[in-house]
Give the backbone structure.
Amino acid sequence: MVAGSGCRSRRGVTRGDVIVLVILLGVTGLLALMGMSRAREGARLNRCARNLAQMGFALALHDQMKGQLPEIASTLPPGEPTSRGTSSPLRGLLQSLDLPDLSSLHDPKTRPKGGGPVPGEIPIPGFVCSSDPNALSGRLPAPISYRAATGDSPLGRNGAFAIGRHWSLAAVEARDGLSYTAAFSERLVGSAEDGPERLPSYRISASSVGDSCPTLADALALREDAGSSWIAADYRSTLYNHAQTPGARPSCIARDGASARIGASSGHVRGVNLLRLDGSVSLTLPTIAPAIWRDLAAIRDPQP
């Protein structure tokens, strides 16, 4: 027998082996990066849900102390100076929690002529979602990532924070049930750097907003200052409605500020966080049926 005839032949590492190894390492690295990205987004999503849960606690506390939810007595023309107006639900909730001391903040009616920030406006960390880069950019004086639901239509007359209405948790529970009624949701903060058709932008309508927004050609202006202030109660910054499903566009506000198609939106991959009046927070997908989404915002009369 010839020596070594029963042994397998040996060969060196070929170019193909190296290519396969590089591909495997690349795929492994990519999967690891994707896993890290998903983990970071999951943490941001949970942090955002905790912010809303804190607001739910504040709502219950406000209702217990005052016998009603924060009231929206009137609304403001979007981004224009005015002598009328009211504090937003967010300011009312902070005062209920006594966090922080708001005694130095001025009333929205002191907004400088021609626009600009209210003296004393400050950003509140719990009012900003970490998945919204524009809210974290520092370009706005007091950004707000969360808004109060006014109802199921552009007029916003039948929601927990309907303009000119006041509700208590007990009254909502008797009519529609707290777990079936939207309180707050997310809305992306706008920026002039987003471009004219990006989601945070909104159009100014010459007349009352109805089933659709004006085209760009018919709009009076295109604004990108959505969510610029948590103090004033208006569709520009602190109110939204369920007239359109999460992420739908375009958005628009009537020139007089009384009606709008300003919906929920977020920077999360999976959907938007929604706070209900029972204090629960759930993730809502953009594919939710429009009728179900509208029903979540409407406080209806009890069935006979």
In short: The chain has one domain: 18-297. The beta strands are 146-149, 182-186, 202-205, 221-223, 239-240, 252-254, 260-261, 272-276, 281-284.
